[in-house]
Amino acid sequence: MSLVDDSPVSSSSSDDFATFLDGELDSTSDTQPEEEEEEEKEKNDDDDDDDDYDWDQDDHETYKSLIDRTKRRKMSYATEEPNGSTSHIEKTDITETSVKMSYATEEPNGSTSHTEKTEITEASVKKVGCTHPGFIGGMCLKCGEKRDTQSGVAFKYIHKDLTLSDDEVARLRDRDLKNLLRHRKLYLVLDLDHTLLNSTRFSDVTQEEGYLMNPDDPMQDKLKGSLFKLPFMHMVTKLRPFVHDFLKEASNLFEMYIYTMGERSYALEMANLLDPGMVYFNSKVIAQGDCTTRHQKGLDVVLGQESAVLILDDTESVWSKHKDNLISMERYHFFASSCKQFGYKAKSLSELRSDESDVDGALATVLKVLKRVHSMFYDPELGENFAGRDARQMLSAVRGEVLKGCKVVFTRVFPTKFPAEHHHLWMLAERLGATCSTEVDPSVTHVISTDAGTEKSRWAVQEKKFLVEPRWLEAANFLWHRQPEEMFPVAVKEVKDKH
After folding, report:
1. At what angle do helices 59-71 and 13-26 cross, to 10 degrees?
2. For the chain, which has fewer Cβ within 10 Å, the N-terminal or C-terminal residue?
3. Which CATH architecture fits 174-380?
4. Backbone angles phi, psi at 470, to 5 degrees
5. Per the confidence metrics, is the pTM higher than 0.90?
6. What is the mean pLDDT of residues 384-410?
7. Which residues of 144-172 are buried (b: 16+ CB within 10 A; e: fewer)?
């Protein structure tokens, strides 16, 4: 995605902003040599005479020039006197607070009289009709007006003082989408913890995991390139198997963001482990402090159209407004502390001295899904109107094929008197393409139960229907295909309720 139509797609809006905003705002006019400053003044004199610049020109250069104008602006005015002569206001620097201007009036005899310099506020000379597309440190990028409060969305991950108006965000998204579609790409937002990697503190490493800290342990060769000790953070991080191949292949199809609920310092360090060459993410790293709603992630801080965005995250609840964009990831629990955090009593992968498979692990599986959605979105048989398509619809179609043809009934799964159709497992089954029912009949293919002794469970056995536990649904959701039913048998509880 790019602000400039002819720029490569790898140069995103946020990358463009970050590059020149940091450079421009860190510099001050006071540090320029005197000769350069005079040349700059002459240049600004000419530039500022033209108030009607094209706001839709090259965005990169436009924003760069606007920041210069915001930091030090010059303006010229002319007023007609009653005798027909003209009074000129000399071009003078406008500071953030106020300016002083000198009036020179031509007398009838040809002489010139000067009025005393009068202080006027910046508001009195602001550009009339400015739409205020964005603010840097409280000053409008376009006209230089200073405001204590600004409406819009803060894009702190691009620059700590940047706020863009809703209209400007919409304009940038429309422009980026055109560039993205031209390069046959979509957007991909990636969570960090339990999705791409797993981290733990040194103090939480168990005795069984001690080999991870021993450089002489034979397992170190297998973990090379994926296990990182970070003493300055008192932390050790394990990258998920296949993550480097995943990012490389996904980058050919998607413009990628990192979006984590972690602190920015942690997010940047993890981004460096995943992308040391800054090929995939660059400045597109969104952290907890960038969220606009507490405990929630949102696409309002992503410069991409929602219809072209896919999300990978292990926590569905933080994406309450964007569930249609979300692909839920099975959590990566490499460390024992991670299992403990989520209440799992089983040993972790590290304690078992094991790991996920590169070939058919979570990232390899989801990459196939992403490729399929991308292929459907850009299917040439649907025509060339890519802008009218919605990646969420393609994702829903792929998901709906997982359990297509299955009809399921639940027993001893939902709380008593809980509306079945509102339970997350019922809704999950429907999203996966299954039909749900509260009563058994010959068309039912599966009974999902936590107790083999219930009446419906016994009916399933008698009628030779599949009797499976709820994990069968969850596995199908994470692995994107129907799982062998025999791997999810239902146990008979000691206390049986046959109703």
Report:
1. 30
2. C
3. 3-Layer(aba) Sandwich (3.40)
4. -60, -25
5. no
6. 96
7. bbbeeeeebbbbbbbbeebbbbeebbebb
- Tell me the three state secondary structure of residue 225: coil
Largest distance between two CA atoms of the chain: 116
Nearest to 11 by CA among 303, 442, 322, 401: 303
303, 172 Cβ separation under 8 angstroms: yes
174-380 and 403-487, same CATH topology: yes
Q: d(Cα 51, Cα 185) in Å, to the nearest integer?
A: 37
Q: What would the two tokens of residue 377 be? A: 């979105």
Task: Report the mean per-residue pLDDT for the chain.
Answer: 82
Where are the domains positioned within the chain?
Answer: 134-164, 174-380, 403-487
Contact between 3 and 60 under an 8 Å Cβ cutoff? The reply is yes
Tell me the sheet residues that pair with 296.
Answer: 293
pLDDT band at 492 (very low <50, low <70, confident <90, very high): confident
**In what helix (H) or strand (E) does residue 455 lie, and over which residues does it extend?**
helix 455-462
CA dist., res. 318 & res. 293, Å (int): 10
Q: Assign domain 403-487 to its CATH superfamily.
A: BRCT domain (3.40.50.10190)
**Residue labelled with tokens 């460390």:** 335
3-state percent helix, strand, coil for the chain, nearest multiple of 5: 35, 20, 45
285, 301 contact by CB (below 8 A)? no
Check if the beta carbon of residue 249 is closer than 8 Å to that of residue 364. Answer: no
Q: So what's the pLDDT on residue 144?
A: 87
Q: Flag whether pLDDT at 377 surpasses 60.
A: yes
Q: Which of 466, 426, 461 is nearest to 435 (CA)?
A: 426
Q: In Å, what is the CA distance from 85 to each residue of 107, 110, 258, 452?
A: 7, 10, 62, 101
